[in-house]
Specification:
Elements lengths: L13 E4 L3 E5 L5 H8 L3 H4 L10 H17 L2 E8 L4 E12 L4 E9 L8 H16 L4 E7 L3 H10 L2 E11 L5 E10 L3 H10 L6 E4 L1
Parallel strand pairs: 5-6
Antiparallel strand pairs: 1-2, 1-9, 2-3, 3-4, 4-5, 6-8, 7-8
Length: about 210
């Protein structure tokens, strides 16, 4: 029996557009707008994140780190653009990309406070999962969140993700406290049901434009 070898796929900057959100390849050109989107409530935006963007310099460093991951082929970071206003309002990415095992994680996701609880985060995840499952043909997409982040855990369950377990004392937060991380996943076999549910709620089909 010959060994199974997954078909390689390209991890390259791409634009993913929906009805209300456009995901653009993250660059330093987004730094000023993204920092402005965090203000004046950065402590709310990054409450559950290990690292906070609390200055323009921190934002630039955060983008530099994301671009280094992209260069290694393990991450595809985006700036989240509100189509109606043309503003950069947050960020998200596909990362921990493992071509050998056809899996990746969606995370580093945040939106400025005015755009939270508006459905834009759901559309963002929809666009990223379309790319992961339908372009890259992944078998698994992962998510993780702080165990105390009830809002995020509830949203992931409503999305159709399955809770898999908790990694205890998994990460160190910016204040030095230990974070337990709860893992969730959606499989390729589950994606058609998840996609149909999202589209019934008004999400748009993904459009892909190479940049």
């Amino acid at each position: 029996m010959s060994a199974f070898t997954p078909a390689p796929f390209a991890v390259k900057p791409i634009v993913l557009s929906g009805t209300r959100v456009r995901l653009e390849p993250l660059t330093q050109g987004h730094a000023v707008a993204l920092y402005e989107a965090t203000r004046p409530q950065a402590e709310v935006v990054f409450r559950w994140h290990p690292k906070h963007i609390d200055s323009q310099a921190a934002c630039k460093a955060w983008i530099d780190a994301a671009l280094l991951e992209q260069a290694s082929g393990t991450s595809l970071p985006f700036a989240t653009i509100e189509i109606a206003s043309g503003k950069a309002i947050g960020s998200s990415r596909l990362f921990n990309i493992d071509q050998a095992h056809l899996r990746a994680e969606i995370g580093y996701t945040w939106l400025g406070v005015p755009w939270q609880r508006t459905g834009l985060n759901r559309e963002t995840k929809y666009l990223l999962m379309c790319h992961a499952f339908e372009t890259w043909h992944l078998r698994r997409v992962e998510f993780k969140t702080h165990s105390l982040n009830v809002q995020s855990r509830t949203a992931l369950l409503k999305l159709g993700a399955s809770e898999e377990g908790t990694l205890r004392r998994h990460m160190i937060m910016s204040d030095g406290s230990a974070r337990d991380s709860v893992y969730f996943s959606i499989l390729d076999s589950e994606w058609p049901t998840v996609k149909a549910k999202l589209e019934s709620g008004g999400a748009a089909f993904v459009h892909q434009i190479d940049t």
